[in-house]
Amino acid sequence: MNSTYIHEVKLPPHYDKTQQYPVIFALHGMGSDEQDMLRLMEPLSTDFIIVAIRGPIVQGGGYAYFQIKSIGNPVRELYDASVQGLQQLIIELSAQYAVDPARRYIAGFSQGGIMAMTLALVMGDAIKGIVAMSGYIPQFVKEEYALQPSSNLSAFISHGDQDHLFPLQLGEDNASFFRNHTNQVTYVPYSGGHHVTPELYAKLQHFLRTDAGVSTEDTKGMTES
User: Which residue of 3, 50, 175, 215 shows the fewest CB atoms closer than 10 Å?
Assistant: First the structure.
């Protein structure tokens, strides 16, 4: 493997390399690490291959995928490098494991959500769906990147109405931007701050299971828009 990204892979309990499985590439927030997202995705590991990826930049007691000049303004060189590096890792691991190429998902929180949205916009049919929590799309991505999202992309976008880092309007902007590219946008504004609430947790699991066509749990309250 050529990629230098530290990551952890969790395979379904009855993994069979002759079969094909949906996969979730899980991306953490600034200052966190891959174990945080691995724990978050744990309930889905019975049906999905889970790949939790550590950001390459040391940030406090954790890691990051990029640094920022100010809120909403990433350092472009570091951002571009992570976009390229994550694309490479996704392609390499998809070849190494029994991944269904039609069921590749990226789930991320905060910085991870920002990267998830960007990767979905540039990787085309390689990405079936995303869960993007509490993030934003940098302006240079919208204006300067070559955008080619799949018309079949399923996007789950969530944002808290009390988020102290990124205002709710950013979540609404994210959903609106993706609606210009796909009809399969699930936008979930929720009551809470910059964190994953139990209600949101249930909804994102339901979304991923339903979209990938695996066993679903009795989760309710999905808001399609």
Answer: 215
Global pTM exceeds 0.85: yes
Q: Yes or no: say if 157 and 186 are a contact pair by the CB < 8 Å rule.
A: yes
Annotation: CATH topology of 7-212: Rossmann fold (3.40.50)
Are β-strands 62-64 and 57-59 bridged in parallel, bridged antiparallel, or unpaired?
A: antiparallel
Q: Which of 26, 133, 21, 11 is nearest to 86 (CA)?
A: 26
* Lookup result for tokens 């976008």: 157
Q: What percent of the chain has pLDDT over 90?
A: 92
Residue 164 makes CB contacts below 8 A (sequence gap 6+) with: 193, 194
Q: What pLDDT digit, counting tens, does each position of 83-128 carry?
A: 999 999 999 999 999 999 999 999 999 999 999 999 999 999 999 9
- What 3 state SS string does the chain have? CCCCCCEEEECCCCCCCCCCEEEEEEECCCCECHHHHHHHHHHHCCCCEEEEECCCEEECCEEECCCEEECCEECHHHHHHHHHHHHHHHHHHHHHCCEEEEEEEEEEECHHHHHHHHHHHHCHHHCCEEEEECCCCCHHHHHHCCCCCCCCCEEEEEEECCCCCCCHHHHHHHHHHHHCCCCEEEEEEECCCCCCCHHHHHHHHHHHHHHHCCCCCCCCCCCCC
